[in-house]
Amino acid sequence: MTNTNGFSDSQESALLDDDAFSELQREIGSNTLPLLTGNMIEESIEEKFEADQKYDVTNLTQQYVEGKVMKNEDSPEYYPSSEATTPVREEFPGCYNFQFSLANQESTKHRIYSQSLRKVFINMDETLPLRFKWDPPDDGLYLRTTMVFSLDQYASDPVRRCHNHMALNNTNNRDYDPRVIKHVVRCLDHSSMYEERNEHLSVLTPLRTPQPGSQYVLMNFKFLCKNSCPSGMNRRPTDLIFTLEDHKRTVLGRRILPVRVCSCPKRDKMKEESEITDTQPEAKKRKHCLPVSKKLMPSCDTHVFNVQLNIIGKENYLAVLKYAYDIMAGQASRTGQYEFFKPYMDDILRKTP
Asked: pTM of the predicted model, to two decimals?
């Protein structure tokens, strides 16, 4: 015979007989056993779920960073890290064919792009819009933006704002964590996180899947210090390094953009472009500036003097002839008038024993 609980009479009695039940009561020290009500069960499940959820979120955050510090809801998050590394500057598209481009390459008063230098010249506190593309456009990836010095001898030096621009009374520093204030670059995406790795500063921004009909994600950046500031970048050229990363910090792609933050972008662009032109090989510059058929005008006195000297000692005599020969050979080389000097130089050679 089977009861309503699903057990037969023999099975139900075998679960716990009266003697065993009485013994269990004595060990517990109570006349009644604890009973879990429906509400108690639900509360227990909810507590476990909240604890598990908190644990998962904490673990996910710690996969990227340690020691989260947040000023307030409007302030960016700051994540210090003990990982020691110097930023690498070699570009590669990676398996996602990571690319970026300027959202607008048209020159303005505050921002200009040099095609020959592939470099951006921009005023401080102006917005630089960039488009980032990766294929396939998977979700869950991150963009890390790091400003570094271009020259190898300064590669290990961190790029920081100058003392003047880091002042607490600066309007750009209001409501920001003091450790975020030293960053030259800021991403205007509110989900950006600011990190410090081996004193190098970077901005980490989650990349969301592009909107339907679009193949890229737009990111806006600002620069809050100038390359010319003495106590900061101190006139050293700088690059922006963009890396595509996953939640394990694995670098999936890397791109470089040279940037100069200055007061007059147009002037600095023209100056740097002219320096590239001036560093062309000397022979090419002479060929470009001076036609081959054009003869150089003499730059020295070409009047011929006949000198008769009595010189004591053969060595002294040879030294005088050699000195005269060297002087005319040097003038012939500087002025291009070799044919004019050649007969007189040959005469000296004939007189040489």
From this structure: 0.59
